[in-house]
Amino acid sequence: MHPGESKKPVMERVIIIGSGPAGLTAAVYAARANLRPLVLAGGLYGGQLMLTTDVENYPGFPEGIMGPDLMIRFREQAERFGARIENVDVTAVDFVKHPLVVRTYDARFEAESVVVATGASAVWLDIPGEERLRGRGVSSCATCDGAFFRDKHIVVVGGGDSALEEALFLTRFGRRVTLIHRRDRLRASKIMSNRARSHEKIDFIWNTVVEEVLGEERVTGLRLRNVVDGKTSEVQADALFVAIGHTPNTGVFAGQLDLDERGYIASPDGSLTNVEGVFVAGDVNDHRYRQAVTAAGAGCRAAMDAEKYLEALEFKIENNRDRGPLPAVS
Ligand code: NAP
Question: How many Å apart are CA 285 and CA 290, to the nearest integer?
Fold first, then answer.
């Protein structure tokens, strides 16, 4: 037990883990249902949109909105209806029996229901030099680090929307942006592909993977391999932005919730998980759509399911009050 755990925990009606569009939409709905949700937002509150620039496809913002500004609005809306938001990371959960237990570094919470909305994190290439030079030219966040590379040659790896979004954003700083993709066809949407392909500062290297990041104190170049003819080469580069997708943040749920073959939380039906009273929403359960708007919709659904579950639980308690002890909820 950690030092701060000595207090007797208050039984929460619903704890929401995560504070991206899914978690904070769940918070808005749960708060409006008078459940006073506790949101354990994570040390880095706001999710992936905090690392994004313009969001042009979130309905209701015809001029677009900056990712962090959108998340501030989500948060203010949830707080307006009584959600309590704490910027702490969840370190462990115990979903084996009720009440459900959620731990942070120095606290232990009990809850009747939990919404898991922990999202996903950037995947790295896992090549020599990448980790050593992280923060010294290697990054996964153009918004955070792009401005360090004014008038430099910047390389972006990946062929999806994220890679193109990063590449387009980085043209504000770099003298030249090179996108390296392992195939000869982009995975990204047409609109993003067309924008990148027609940008004068962006050039493409196809059918190529980065095998090593070169440099002592900072990135000076990359060793590449053409996957068609196997030839290796070196290119000068001042920065490498890796944008090759995401992995779900499910570490603390292993052994507690069923995961699918890719490690995402499995949901047999809508927001339901294999544990009664635990609901899931957003990118931690969705490798297909992964949009802010689909995550928000899933957050709404999870909060409504949690509310229904709590209603049914209350009904069960009322009806069993005079009939001896309650059966375990499992
Ligand atoms: P993604 O669509 O999964 O694309 C990942 C890219 O990285 C793919 O092109 C993949 O190559 C490449 N890749 C994966 N592993 C690699 C490796 N080890 N080495 C080299 N390349 C590798 O991921 P995403 O771009 O992060 O997008 C995720 C979702 O968010 C998508 O649904 C996307 O539409 C959405 N999104 C939308 C926007 C927007 O609308 N503005 C912005 C960002 C993201 P292959 O193509 O060969 O598989």
Answer: 9
